[in-house]
Sequence to fold (968 residues):
Amino acid sequence: MNNQGRPTQPAAANMNERVTVSGSQGLNQATKLIFETGTPRRTGVDLPKPKGHASRLGAHVRQGEIGLPGLSEPETMRHYVRLSQKNYAIDLGVYPLGSCTMKHNPRLNEKVARMPGFADVHPLQPTSTVQGALELMYELSDWLMTLCNMPAVALTPKAGAHGELCGMMAIRARLDHDGASHKRRVLVPESAHGTNPATAVQCGFTVDEIPANAGGRVDMDALKAKLEGLGADSDIAGIMLTNPNTCGLFETDIIEIAELIHAAGGYFYCDGANFNALVGRVRPGDLGVDAMHINLHKTFSTPHGGGGPGSGPTVLSDALKDHAPVPYVVKTDEGFDLIEDPDDKSFGRMCAFHGQMGMYSRALTYMMSHGSDGLKQATEDAVLNANYVQASLSDVMTTAFEGTCMHEALFDDRFLKGTGVDTLDFAKAMIDEGYHPMTMYFPLVVHGAMLIEPTESESKGELDRFIRAMRSLAQRAKAGEVESFKNAPVYAPLRRLDETRAARNPVLRWSAPDETAQAAE
Amino acid sequence: MRYLPLNQNDRAAMLDVIGVKSIDDLFHNVPESARLSGLVDLPKHQSEAAVEQHMSRLSAKSVSAGSVPFFCGAGAYRHHIPATVDHLIQRSEFLTAYTPYQPEISQGTLQALFEFQTQVALLTGMEVANASMYDGSTACAEAVVMAHRVARGKKPVAILAPGLHPHYAAATQTLASTLSIKVAETTPQMGTDADVIDMITDETSCVVVQSPNVFGEIVDLAPIAAKAHAHKALLIAVFTEPVALAAIKSPGEQGADIVVGEGQGLGVGLNFGGPHVGLFACTKKLVRQMPGRVCGETVDANGERGFVLTLSTREQHIRREKATSNICTNSGLCCLAFTIHMSLLGDAGLKQLAALNHENACQMADIIDGIEGAEVLNDTFFNEFTVKLNKPAADVVQTLADKGILGGVPFSRISGGQHEDLLLVCATETASDADMQAFEIALKEAL
Fold:
């Protein structure tokens, strides 16, 4: 009570058990589907009336209702604002999702991306009318090539996995050009991200796994055994290696690995997902890399947007650059031009148009804001933050591997042994503490993996609070408070969801109630 | 640096906790030969004002579509986007979230995806849709690979119709080239899409037909579907302009098994070609072969309705080299923009938008038909059609551009030089009477 007699503490009550008439609870607003609130005749857009011109649609005119509900503008606004409030976001709190680089998204990037000379230009306007857009792409290429010390970059790939495809297609094109079409075996470490083997197969290669050693890095003995006695004419097409790897460790032997692969007549594809640990301090070109995609949405902070759109420009070595996809920008005496039709060396076209312009403008804005000095500092702070978290938790949690890490810290679930709490429970309990969980159960080489990537965007104060919460959770698990973990989360908009049910009987769209009844019969 | 919260005191204290002397010690695993000592050769950091000024000046070097009479289409379409759409997709909770891996704190993204999937299914006339692809062209390529998978590799041939956007054909060819899929490509030619019927055999895994096609013609899909099904092949229907589907019979109604297309026209700007949003729908029977992310309905521990990513056993993070595709993202924010724009329009609004587009295109076609040296070739079209000129279209387009008019896309630009005399002209609801008049005058002068 304060001195006016107003209660300042809630009465003891379990708020979660209270059922409200509206279905909403304070700021947590119940949000029906648009199909349950909108109607086909309502609209939130005012359009002029059609003038009644004769139709030239032919015989195939759409008849009847499509079934799309419409909402007025205020209803639309409220629907999506309510939905947004059920999402966790970087702007809300620590989002330490390992290998995803959830860093701050500067709003200048958004402002620039919406400038009309980038956002409101058509990809097929005459090049004389898009000189500014082409110049931006050329500038971006220059920054990426300089940071990587690589002679070429293909901008078009639309996401990281698309960049992997670009790099591997370039390797395949080079091999075929050299008459080495028997080279189809690609080595992939077992700790690799799932996209690596999936990409290799999509490019028509076969995948050969290399085990990790006890230190979490490529097992050099196993690698040498695979390559022993193989000359440049072997069946090896290349290797796909992430560096720093998915355990958050720099591959110490990377230069030797590159030499071994090159000696076997193969090429070195580096997965650049973790480039945030290297920018301005290490250049992939100095490590013997032949191709590497750069996730602009991670390293260069174009927003993650709830899962995309991404952008995966792929830098290429001298050996591969002639096989790059079209289109690409060239500088001529008259200005900038686009090469849109492939020659006989290019592996062709990956998509309509020129890639993700909206991401190029954001990424270049980010890079120019940081500059060479700021990019280096950001890398150092990212690595520093990860090591600070690792050092501050290693006595209560179990680090997967000895020694310092790069930009992400990897823990396993040994510290939970015998507690009845598993990695998933631990993650869900973090939600109740107000944090987005780390990446869990990845990489697969570590049991019950927890991969924490704080990025350079977190202050020391924020990290200290995070560390305190994590330590407390670890101690509570060890103290036998299993039930609170199994029940978690209780403070999220929903409790744990039944994923098995979703997969067993997939309901992938809304259906009108009577249709649902019919389907059940 | 304004984006970095740590100061030198913080850094020193943190190094102390870690137990190392300097930041360099944290990079000790980097081979010495690869350690950079100084800064890379790039400009140093700049203020927000300085970067903004640089970018504004670059932006001003391009002619934006909204500033001139504008008639370009050919796979990217300019429509008015309500201000609500851009405001909502910039909310922090949508903009700065990632893939909804933790559904309890991602219901906003997930419910929006579920609604999006339903809208796409309704628009295409299909049973199910996924949570979007990179763009229409990559969705098309993935659909051909999917058909190959459905046929368990036993049907080697994929047929691409002559009206398929050449960029879509090229992207498909690129992906298929490594997978022992034989792509039977046809030469782009108007009025010949039905010729694919005679090409279908038992060897055919799929036939890919675009409607409206790249020339703007509306194609009768039903007879192609019938022949394909008789040979246990799949019909993949393609579209590049989602607004068209509100005016013409849905591909699902005409027997398509997979429908893929570009969703950019609703909610997403031109963006010089990207990011856009690929739409992907299919029959329920094929759902487990579908690439990409899918969102599904379920319940939480209290029995409340909720949504999760599902059917992930198809995907690369579980299946690795056996995955249906290497794709691990969707076009998140663009698919959100699409679904918000669709919610604002509703059935009535979308149909009216489609009607306005068609009327403007009809008006434009009449104008062009009245100009000597220009002839509209289409019998049918939605908001885009093909014009035969008495001069190379690229030269005419350049002349128009020099007069401040973006007057369409020369067909040769997308077809590697074929059909130099053909011009693709698109008129959406954004084209005013004055714009059309300006085009008419300029084209008369140019021919």
Q: What stands out?
A: The radius of gyration of chain B is 25 Å. The first helix of chain B runs from residue 8 to 18. Residues 384 and 426 of chain B are 4 Å apart (CA to CA).
